[in-house]
C-alpha cells in the first residue's frame, strides 16, 4: 500500500502528541470536513490543504466508510481492533496511522455544554476542522473582549459579523470624527494599541496589521467615495474573521508583513507594502499573473468550503455504474462525472462555480451567443472558449463540419469500455465519428451519435484519442444522469484533416475570427476569491 502527501507545518505539534499516545487507549475523533473519494484500489482524502491517497486493495473505501460512524463519534484504536475481524485490522491500522500523520485525528475533548454552545454549533465544527483544541479555542472566542472604533455604519457591520462568529463581548465606539472609512479593532481590555486597522473606500479596502499608520493606507489606496454595500460587508466579514483567527490561535491572512487588500470585484492578499490597483477589463489577467502563491485548479474546494464559501461543496452520490458521480443530489446541472472519483469531483466543483455565473449582461452577445467558461489561465480560457463555440456550432450547424466514422475496432482500447457501456447498459447502437472543421488548428474533434436521438456529445482535444474518450465519457454521462442532449443529425461525410499547430488555443481562436465569428472573452469578477485562487470566470461571445 502507498500514501503520498505533505504535512501541514501547523500540524507538527499535534502529530508529535498523537505519536506519544498512539499505543494508549486515547479516544480519537475524525476532524469534520474530511472528504473521501473512492479511487481504483483505494481512497483519496482531502481536507483543506492536505490531499493524499491510500491504495492497495479495492475494499479500502468500504472499510473506511464502515469505520466512519465510530471515527466521527470518537473511538479508541483498541475498540476498533476489537470490533473488526483479525484480517481487517492491518488495513484499518494503516488508515488510522495515515490520518494521524496528517493531523486529521484529534484526541476527544469534552464538548461545550448546550448553554455554552448556544446557536454557534457551526463555529465549533469549523474550529474542530482546523484547531488542535477546538473546545478551548471556542471558549477563548466566547471570553474575548473586542472594541471597535470608527464610523457607525461600518463598525455596526463588523460587530454583526463578530457576533455571528460567536464573540459575546463586542463594544462599539462610534466616532464619526475618526477619518472616514477607517476602523480600529482592539482585542483585550488593557490594550491601547489597535490589533487590526481597516480602511475602506468606494473601490478598495484593506485590513492591515496594528503598526500600519492610517496615513500610509490613505497614500497607497484609492479610498475616496462611499463603498457599495457588498464591498462594505465583505471587508467587515473579513475583519471579523481575522479577529476570530487571532483569538482562536489559527493562521490568519494578516501578519506584521502582510495585509489583505479588497476591491469591489475580488479579494486578493499581497505582502506589504505592495498593493493592488483596481482591475480594468484590459488588465483583468494581472491579478492572476501576480507573483503570489496561487492555489490553482486543485484548490477549487477552498471556494466551496469554510465560513465564506460561495456555494455548498458537492456531495458524493456514491460509486455508480458505469461512472462516478458527485453532486447529483442537487440536480444534473451541477453534477460532475468521471471514470474515477477524483475526475468526477473536480468536474462537479467546476460546474458548481459555473452555475453561480449570472445571466450574460444584456446586449453582450447581440447577434451571436454567449457561453459561460471557467479556466486557470488566459490560454486555458481561450482553449475552453474556442471548444465551447465549436461544440455549439456542431449542434446548431452540423453542415459546417465533416465526419468520418470510427469503426468499433479502431476505438482506443482505453475508451472501449465506454462504447460497450452505451450498448450493454443503455441499448444504444452508438456511432463514433471524427470531426473536421475549417477552424481546427492543432485540435481533433469527435462526436457520439445515437441513430434514434442524434448527437449525444462531442469533444475537442489536442490528440485524437483524447477527443474520442471525452465524447464517449460525456455521452455516457448524459444517459446516466438524464442530461439534455443536442439531438441533431451527423455532419455530412468528408475529409478530416486538422491543421497542425504548436499553439492550438490561440490558433483555433484566430481561425474562428477569420471565419467571421469574432470570438471574444468577457470576464466576470463578481465571485470573491476566485481570481485570488487562480480561477477565472466569464463568457465567450461569438457572432453567428
Give a structural overview:
This protein is α+β, with helices and mostly antiparallel strands. The protein folds into three domains: 22-108 and 280-308, Outer Surface Protein A, domain 3, CATH 3.90.930.60; 144-269, 3-Layer(aba) Sandwich (Rossmann fold), CATH 3.40.50; 370-523, no CATH class. The protein has 16 helices and 23 strands. The strands form six sheets. It has a seven-stranded mixed β-sheet with strand order 8-7-9-10-11-12-13, sandwiched between helices. A four-stranded antiparallel β-sheet has the order 1-5-4-3, covered by helices on one side. The chain has a four-stranded antiparallel β-sheet with strand order 18-19-20-21, sandwiched between helices. Strand 14 (316-319) and strand 15 (324-326) form a beta hairpin. The termini are far apart.
What are the main properties of this structure?
Rossmann fold, 7-stranded mixed β-sheet, disordered N terminus, 544 residues, flat, 16 helices, Outer Surface Protein A, domain 3, alpha+beta, 3 domains
Brief description of this entry?
With 544 residues, the chain is of the alpha+beta class.
Mean pLDDT: 79
Quickly count the domains: 3
**CA-atom Rg in angstroms:** 27 Å
List unreliable stretches of 5+ residues. 1-24, 268-298
**Beta strand count:** 23
Strand order of the largest sheet: 8-7-9-10-11-12-13
Give the assembly state of these chains: single chain
Residue share in helix:
25-40%
- Give the amount of beta strand, in percent: 15-25%
Shape descriptor reads flat
Helical segment count: 16
Report the span from N to C terminus: 55 Å
Class based on secondary structure composition and strand pairing: alpha+beta
